[in-house]
Structure formats: C-alpha cells, structure tokens
Amino acid sequence: MTDTSLLVLLPFLAALAATIHARGAAGWGLAGTVASAGLAAHLALSVHASGPASIAIGGWAAPLGITLRADGLAALMIAMTALVGLGVCVQALAAWGLRPTAVEDPRRARMRMGFWPLWLSTLAALNGLYLSGDLFNLYVTFEILGLAAVGLTALSGTRRALRAAFDYLVAGLAGSLLLLLGVALAYAAAGRVDLGVLPLLADSAAGRIAIALIVSGVGLKAALFPLHFWMPAAHSSAAPAASAILSALVVKGALYLALRLLLEGGLVADALRWGLICLGAGGMAWGSVCALRADRLKLLVAYSTVAQIGLIMLAISVAGDPLTGTAWQAAALLMLSHALAKAAMFLAVGRIAEELGHDRISGLNRSDLRPGAAEFAFAIAAISLIGLPPTAGFVGKWVLIDGLIGQGAWPVVALVLTGTVLSVAYLSRVVSRCLRGGPHIAPGARRPPWRAGDVAAIGLAFTALFMGLLSAAPLALLNGPLLS
Amino acid sequence: MIVFDLMLAAAILVAGWSALSAPDRTGAIAGFLVFGLLVALSWVRLDAPDVALAEAAIGSGLTGALMLRAAGRMAPPAADRVPRAQRAAAALLACGLAGGLAVAVMDLPGATIVYDPLVRADLGQSGVSNPVTAVLLNFRAWDTLLEMAVLLAALVLVAALGPRGTPRPARLGPLYTPFLRIMAPLSVLVAGHLLWLGATAPGGAFQAGAVLCGGLLALYFGGALRPAAVPAGPLWALCAAGVAVFAAAALAAEVLTGTLLAYPDGADKIWILAIEGGLTVSIGATLLLLFTGLRQGGARA
Amino acid sequence: MTPFPFPDLTPQLIYHLAGAALVGIALYRGATSSDLLTRILALNVLSVGIAAVFVAAANRGAGAVPDPVPHAFVLTGIVVLVAVTAALLALAERIDLTGAKSDD
C-alpha cells in the first residue's frame, strides 16, 4: 500500500510546484490531477481485489499514532473525487488555458495561477480526509480543505464573491472549531481521539455532548439545513469550475465524516438520529422551495444542493445498524451520483451564462438561439439528480427506499418521494425553458458552437447517466469489509 | 493557590469579554493582547510550558500584530445593529452550549488514561526526550505535515486575493537601526536555541519559527527588509522548503524502512532536527509573508 | 480549605469551566456582532476556550506529569488558527477596500 500516502502527498507537492513555478501552474495541475486519478484507480482495484488495508504512519499504532485506512467506502470516495476532478480540469483548461500567451488578459492569467494550487490543495485535503482514521487529524484536513475552498470562492475577485468567501470561511472555521471542541471533550471523556473512541462516547454525558458537538460541526460544514445560510452565496458566486468543485466535492467531505461516524458506531443515540432525520427532511423542503423561487440559475443549482444534502443526511440517519443492514450504502451511492450530476450541472450553467451574458432563469427562453450542448448536459444531469433510471441517482434512491420499506418506515418513504417530485418541479423550470424552441426561433437562429468546455459537462453528465448501469462496481467496493 | 487560579480565570474572562465588546478597534485589540498573555500564564499554571510559549508568541503576539495591521487599513466599525430576537437567540444558544460544557466537565468519568503509558513506553525510541516534540515530529508527525499544508494553503489564499497596496513602513527614526542590529541577530540565535532545546525541553520548530518571524518583522518595520522588492518565486520556494523537506523525508523513510515517516533506527534525532530546521525557516518566512502579503509566483512586480 | 459550593475545586476544574465560559462568550459575540474584525476575534477566543478543555484535561493534578498529546494538539491548533486568521483578515481588508470603492 505504498501508494496510499501518495494520494495525499502527490497532489500537495504538485500544488507547491504550481505555486512556485506559476507560469506552468496548469501543467503541474494537470499532471497532479491525472497522476492522482491513476493512484485512485489503483487503490480502488487493489481494495476490490485484496480487501481493505491500513497503514500505521511512522509505525506507531492507533490510538497514539495516526492510521491511514483504505476500505471500500474510502476508495469509492477517492475515485469519485478523481473522476469529477478530471472533468473539472478539462473545463479549467478550456477556460484559462494551459500556458501563458504572449498577450494575455490579466484576469485569465490570475485565474489560472490561482485556480490550480487551490484545486490541488483541495484534492490532497479530500484524499487525506477520506483516508484518515483519527479525529484530530480529520480536523487538520478540514482546515486545509476549508482554506482551499474559500480561495476557490474568492478567485473571481468580485465584491459579492469576497463577501461570500468571508462568510464561508467564518462558517467553515466555526464548524471545524465545533468539531475540535467535540474532539477535546471526547479526549476529556475517554482519553483518546482516534475513530475507535466513538463507541466509547455513548457511555458518559460528556461523551454524548462530544458526539453532538462533532455532529453539529459536521452539519455546519456540510451546509445541513438550517446551517446552510453561508452556502448558496458561496457556491453561486464562484467561477464555474470552482462552483463545481465546491458543490460536488467539498461538501462531500463533511457528509463522508457523518457516514463514518455512523459506521464507527458514533450515531447510536435515537434523539440524535431523529434530529438528523428532521433536519434532512427540512433541508429537502427548504432547499426545494428556495430553488423553486430562485431567479438566477446558479442560485437554483446551489439551493438544489441544499435539498440533496438533506436527502443524503436523511439516508445516513435512517440507515439503521450498519453491521447488519446495507441501507447506509444508499448514502454513499447518492453522494456519488450527486457529485457527478452537480459538477456537470455547474459546468453547464457556467457555459450557459457565458453564452447569454447572464444567468436569469426568466431569460433562458431565448428566441434567437437554439439550445446547445450545455443545455443538453444540464438536462441529462437533471435526470440523474431526479433519480430516473438508469442513472446512479436512481440506484441510490432504490437502495434507500428498499431499505426503508424493509424497516416499515413508510412516512420516510413518502418524504423521499415528495423530495423527488419537488426536484422534478424546480429542475423543469430550467429544462422546459431551454427546450421551448419551435415557433419562437427567429430566422437565422443557430446553435452555439461546440467548445472544449462543453466536453467536461457532457462527459460528467453521461457518466452520471450510465453510472446506474455500472453500479455493480461501486456496490462491489461497498460490499467489501469495512475497517472499524 | 486556588485563589490565584480563580482570580486568573476571572481576569481571563473579563479580558476576553472586553476584547469582544470594546466599541473601538484599538481597545478590542488591546483587550485581546492582555487576554492572550493571561491565557499563556494559565497554561504555565497547568504545566503546559510549550503551549504557553506558542500562545504568547503566535496566538497573542503575531495574531495581535495581524489584527493591528487590519485595524489600520479598515474603516472604523459601525455600531452593531442586530435585531433583538437574534441577540436573544444567540444568548440562549451560547448559554446552552456553555452550560452543557460545564455540566460535561463537572461530570467527567474517572480519568481514562490512554496516551501517557504509550508515550512513556515509546519515548526512548522517538529520538528526543521532550514528549511534546516526540508527539509532534514522530508519533503524530502526519498531523504536523498537514499543519504545514494549512499554513501554505493560507498563504496561497492570501496571494490569490491579489495585492493590497502594502505601503512601505515608515522609517522609525535613528534609534531604530542600532536596535535592529541587536534584535535581528538575537532573534536568529534565540530561534536556533529554541530549536535545539526543543529536543529535550519546552521549545521546538514552531516557537523557533515564531521568534524568527519576530526578528524578520522588526527588520520589515525598520525598512531593512522589503519582500515586495524580491521576486515572488524564491520567496515561495523559501516557504515551501520546510514542508517539501518534510514530505521528502516522509517518503525517503518509507523507502529506507518500508513505513511512511518511520525514521531509521538510531537516527531519529538527526532526522527530526533536520526536518525541524527546514520547518523553522519556512514557518518564519510564511508567518512574515502572511503579514506582509505576497504576489502569486509568476506575477510581475 | 475548599471553597463552597464545590467540594473539590481543582485548578483543572477552574480552567475547564473558564474554557466553557469562553466558548459561550465567543459564540454570543460571534453571532451578534456585525463587525468583521470582532467576529474574527470571537473565533480566536473560541479556540482558546477549546484549548482550555484540552490542556485542563491533560493535567493530572499537582506534581504529576501532564499528558503531552493534547499539548501537541493545542500547539497545532494555535498555528492552524493564526494561518486561518491571516486569511480571514486579508479577506476582510479586501472587502473593506472594495466597499470603499463602490461607495465612491
């Protein structure tokens, strides 16, 4: 398992190289992303073939030392990050170029030099987070992730983006400090902070408060309703490639930790689970309502993330005992499908806004242009988010509802179905306008030309679409033994 | 001594509150500096001298300097106009959390001791005798490596925001130059001493880096050091050197011993000191540049 | 002599409770202040409150050697926090600057 630590160190060293040698930032970024994707594929294959593995860093075993643990869930999340990362890289290369040109727009140069180190840091932090087996170490990876994500938000440099970035950093720091406070209390209660401490925390009042603090920190970082206040502004004011990373990947870090807490036996208190179910349902409702009322396309997509996070959190908190059931796998599949579809959607929205010069939903109903590749990618991604077959979203919802019916939890089934109907409603606001061609099309109407940027959106959207047919692969990873 | 502890805790709370509720920025930052020093004192009372050193140098000193810089650049604060309902909700939430924490700490299960025996058993093999340094650079070196990544990520973020028109600091008068002639070499000496000391006594790379940063800041304020005049590439290389050395050492150890970050037997101390040396320089430089700001690598002056 | 009403008031408990109070103060001011700098200060005070929980829990009473691992956590936390504070302050200054420009 030599390559496990490289999943963290390699993108990080590439980020350093891209920072020092800023003229070649895009080259370093591409090399780092592709190499990391290769390592991710290798990890997934070796976990699938020979089961999970863990390494004690420095030879010091937990609880004193830190263990990197690669099981099926971690390998799936790392592969998801690599896949979305490759798509986003294509878009970033198309938007800001590979090399500096002789006469260059300073904004383009600034974006290129700023984006790549921040993306590579995000990648390193996410991989480190998925592999970490220690709560304090998770706190440190969250801080790298938070800083890099805020940098991606602020990259466009507008006042709105700066303000959103500030609020994002404050909320993110408050979230990690709540997590750290929970870790401190866990140490005070049980004397250790590796993930193995979680089952021990249920025994004391201090331990239960520690778990509650950790969960609230995770909720704030994952933008779980009603702690999502910072998120729509941050995700909707960033550049398209950055929005895709923030919405598809960065929030998954916190959701993954919530799922880990469940798998490690940390979410055993009924009150906590019911609380999370309520917040998840609230997020689905509130996110959908806001998406229905949004007047800007990016804002609609950002609020749809609030709703989808609610659904994933619901799937995590209803999953029951992870040792006996497989309902928790629904949460992992929903995270995978949301990552692919939402990245495609933000990239498509970026292209639509670039073409039209605005992203007002009322103005999508154009009379002189036919829908192009970006609108097509948006529609495909919408199908996956709604969860129609054969998409990955469908498989995720299928596993979730199957598990819920097995438990006899009919009210929750109704909630999930209502959420699905609402997502059809808000996504069709966009899709129907894009398709309204016909009599409106003026003479001389033309399709917008293909751009390299469209490739990324369409590629990711189709991956989300066909992931349902290929869902045996992620399920095989998830069915393997877990490390705990 | 209980009375002293009670008075110190009360003074910390008063200073903390005044830092957060002073109407003007200078008052708030002065309150914060006093708060930091009192907190450092309380760490000494709790037998945590390493933490006290870092709190005084970084948590209070450097953070205070950053705050003063920001206060000088920003418009004075407007009066708070927060709805009463929000105040009430925040007060309720804050009281609930503080109360919950108080209940939790008064009701801790009997001390569960996990780490002490493990640290004691392994300290002999760690290469250093200061247990905090052993934890930071050996037992949990992965945390420290990622912590350096946090410092660099912050610097990348600050640089990506673009220049903020740093005015050159004013000359501080004729007496300042002799002061600098003493201070700058002294800070290097003290940093080196803290670094060496860290193996056996309170101290180490972070405290040493903070002292080095203090010396560099003194030079900066004296006008003797102008990061803006140096090309950005070498400055970035200086900041990245420590963590690059650290990561290279981690991988080299994996090649030599088969385990990531497991230093070869018997050579632990040399490896740790080499890594710490690189870290000290990079921490000093990174903290300075977080204060002064830095251009992106390829941007022209 | 042990003061009323806590039968065994120890330095650990005092600083534990002070940490809890600091967390409360920081949370209240962080949520009710509209000034960016005050919110940044509040986050710094919050992290000191957390450090107090760590350091007080590491203390094993007078004379005993404290646990070094939480000390290392707090040291790491201090360095992480100064980095994030620098980033926050740079953002706050930039917001202040663009605000001043757009008011012109």
From TrEMBL, chain A:
Keywords: Cell membrane, Membrane, Transmembrane, Transmembrane helix. The keyword Cell cycle does not apply. GO terms for cellular component: plasma membrane. The chain crosses the membrane at residues 73-94, 138-156, 168-189, 209-231, 238-259, 271-292, 299-320, 326-349, 369-388, 408-427, 455-478. Pfam families: Proton_antipo_M. This is NADH:quinone oxidoreductase/Mrp antiporter transmembrane domain-containing protein. NDH-1 shuttles electrons from NADH, via FMN and iron-sulfur (Fe-S) centers, to quinones in the respiratory chain. The immediate electron acceptor for the enzyme in this species is believed to be ubiquinone. Couples the redox reaction to proton translocation (for every two electrons transferred, four hydrogen ions are translocated across the cytoplasmic membrane), and thus conserves the redox energy in a proton gradient. Its main location: membrane. It comes from Meridianimarinicoccus roseus. One of its GO terms (molecular function) is NADH dehydrogenase (ubiquinone) activity. The keyword Flavoprotein does not apply. Residues 132-423 form the NADH:quinone oxidoreductase/Mrp antiporter transmembrane domain. It comes from the Bacteria.
TrEMBL record, chain B:
Pfam families: MbhD, MnhB. One of its GO terms (cellular component) is plasma membrane. Residues 11-74 form the MrpA C-terminal/MbhD domain. The chain crosses the membrane at residues 6-22, 29-46, 52-68, 88-106, 145-163, 175-199, 205-223, 235-264, 270-291. Keywords: Cell membrane, Membrane, Transmembrane, Transmembrane helix. Residues 180-271 form the Na+/H+ antiporter MnhB subunit-related protein domain. Its main location: membrane. It is a multi-pass membrane protein. It is found in: Cell membrane. PANTHER family: NA(+)/H(+) ANTIPORTER SUBUNIT B, NA(+)_H(+) ANTIPORTER SUBUNIT B. Belongs to the CPA3 antiporters (TC 2.A.63) subunit B family. This is Sodium:proton antiporter.
Automatic annotation (TrEMBL), chain C:
This is Na+/H+ antiporter subunit C. It holds the Pfam family Oxidored_q2. It comes from Meridianimarinicoccus roseus. It is a multi-pass membrane protein. It comes from the Bacteria. It is found in: Membrane. The chain crosses the membrane at residues 12-28, 40-59, 71-92. One of its GO terms (cellular component) is membrane. Keywords: Membrane, Transmembrane, Transmembrane helix.
